[in-house]
Structure formats: structure tokens, C-alpha cells
Amino acid sequence: MARNSVYHLSARQVILLAFSSALIAVGATALLYNFGGKLWSSSDNSGITFAEQAPPGISDPSTVSDEQNNIEVYKAISPGVAFITSTSVTQDFWGNEQEGKGTGSGSVIDANGDILTNYHVIEDAQKLTVSFGGDKTYPATVVGTDPDTDLAVIKLDNPPPGLPVVPFGDSDKLTVGQKVLAIGNPFGLDRTLTTGVISGLQRPIKARNGRPIDAAIQTDASINPGNSGGPLLDKFGRMIGINSQILAPAGGSVGVGFAIPVNTAKRVVPQLIQYGEFKRPRLGATLPAIEELRQKGYRVPVDSGLLVYQTVPGGSLERAGVKGIGNDGSIGDIIVSAEGQKFNDLDDLYRFLDKKQIGDTVNFEVYRNGRMTTVPIKLLGSPSTTRTTTPRRTIQ
Predict the structure, then answer these.
(1) Can you give the CATH number for the domain in which 201 is found?
(2) Judgement on whether residues 287 and 267 belong to the same structural domain of the protein
(3) Backbone phi and psi for residue 111, each to the nearest 5 degrees, phi listed first
């Protein structure tokens, strides 16, 4: 008769693991759950659409010089590139108010005055103003934010008529070496054009909250502070990315900039406009990485995966019957992979879930009682905002 190997943790290890998991939770996003509240689907049912046709005034790039193409793209697109100024007020130790200002860029994405930018451009802003060249400024308010992808949408309170719109391209069809143009406001210099090429694709970068932003576009087009949130364009004047980060050891551009793919924005922005946030599938558990546990001396039966330390009542894993560490110290289930994607750490899981929708059922490979088993798990989402009781907090 075959015997199932069940690993046990000593009382000391359980305590240490609980402490380690708490540390992990400090650095992760707190996920909120309710029981029976309405779950929103990640699919775009809003009816929100974006312009995708190349703007008029740009000739077929194959029929004009590169210089002429630069001129035409700039003339067509720059009127729709916003100069965003964010203002925040803080108090010092003695109660004196100090005003801080920051600047960034954005792209007008519809005739309603919605502007796509980076979350870090408007983070903690108490006042937002937008200009499109000249002295005229427009007050704006935050519509929605997604710190996980560093994207945000703001809206002009009274948008002017005939506001130019920056059309969306397709970031899934890019190739290394392809010409790109960036328009933004580096160092407060109004609507500056820089050009270059795509230097790399599928670059892993992270948002300020530590979440991975998958498949970033690397470019050598000069991107400096103030370019953040502005469009990275193809030669037809279509936005293919949102300029977000630079590699700057000396504090300035060294020809290594990164943009968030516009197809990520296509998926996120409709929900930001409709709900004010992007609603992602959640597993609902504390999930320390096996590799980290092994490095700390814990005895675990597999080389990689995510240990289910504790599940959230009513969450995706708990409803699927996935178990955490038992009261007797027996080790919990270990999530190893799903759909061929191995989970070495939480970043791997975040990237996987970010491509899924609430309500999807996914077959996860789980190590349980000494053997691998397939567990179908229905992915649940964030809570309804109508919840009145204090929800439980956890990490993924």
C-alpha cells in the first residue's frame, strides 16, 4: 500500500513561519473580500471605446522623409498631449503648511476630457491642473487609479470643445528596431518631442508598490522626469505605450526608458473610468514562496511553488477546498503551477492572474499529501463597496 507523505512543522517553525508571513504581508497589497457582495467582471462590458485610427495629417511614412514624418506626427498629436501639474500641501512639525508641486504628462483619450497618465504623476495630489500649451489651464479631477500598473485617468472639469484625441495602437505587434516617438514635458519643458527605436520588448519592471508590470517596452528615445504619463507613439501617430520609467544612475536619461504597453491600458482604463479602479481576480490566501522558506531552513517537500499558509474564508482557495497549515502543524497545500506557468514567487502569480478575469475557472497544479493533484479554482474578485462590516485583510 502506498503511503502519503505528510510533512509536519514544529511549533517553533509554525511561529517563525507566521512571523515571516506577516513580514511578507507588509510589503504586499492588502486584499479585501466580502461574502455575497456583488463581484465585478474584469471583462470590459462598459461599452467604452477608444480611437484607433491614425490621425489625419500624417502621410504614409513610406512616402515621406523621416524628418517629415517626425514633423507630421508632432503636429497631429502634440495638441492632445497634456501638461499635468499636481499640487499637495503638507504640514511641518510646527504646523506650517508647505506646498509641493510636481509635473507630468498625459494623453487625451476621448472627447469627454478623460486623460490617461501614470498613477505616480497624480499620487497624493490635492489639486490638479492641465494645460495644452500657453497660459490657459484647466482644473481636473481623478477618475480612477491602478497603482499595480501605474496607470490613472483624470478628467478635465470643463473640457474645451474639439479636444484632440490620441489614438491607441497595438502593442502586441511591435518589433525591436521599430521607430518610436515620445511627446511629453521633461523638466517642465512644454510638449517636447524625442525620437528613437524600440530597444527591447517584454521587459520586467515594477510599479512603486512592488507589483510587476509585465511586458514593458524599452526604448532609447530620451525620456526624462516630466515625460511620465506621456505617449510613446509609432510612426503613424498611434500610442503604443505610456512612458513610465527610466534607468538613470546619474539622475538623467541614459537612453534606457520603459513604457507600459498600450494594450495593458486598453484592458485597465475602461474599468478606471467606469468603477474608479481595476478589479482583479484574487486567490485569497497568505502564500510565502517555497524557495524563500527553503533558504530559511524550513523542510518542505518540493523545490518551488507557493505554500498556502492561511486562506481567507469565502476566498477563491477556501471555496475550492484548498487547505492551509493545519492546527496540528501539518503543512498546507502547495500551489505549484497553472496552465504551464510555474509559480516561483508571488510575482509569477500576479502576472498570471493579471491576465485572467473574475469568474474564470483555472486548473491549478497543487502538491497535497505527497502527490500532485489538479484543483479547479473559480477566481473571485474584490469586494463590493457596499460592504459595511470590517473585511479581513490578507496577501495573495
Answers:
(1) 2.40.10.120
(2) no
(3) -75, -10
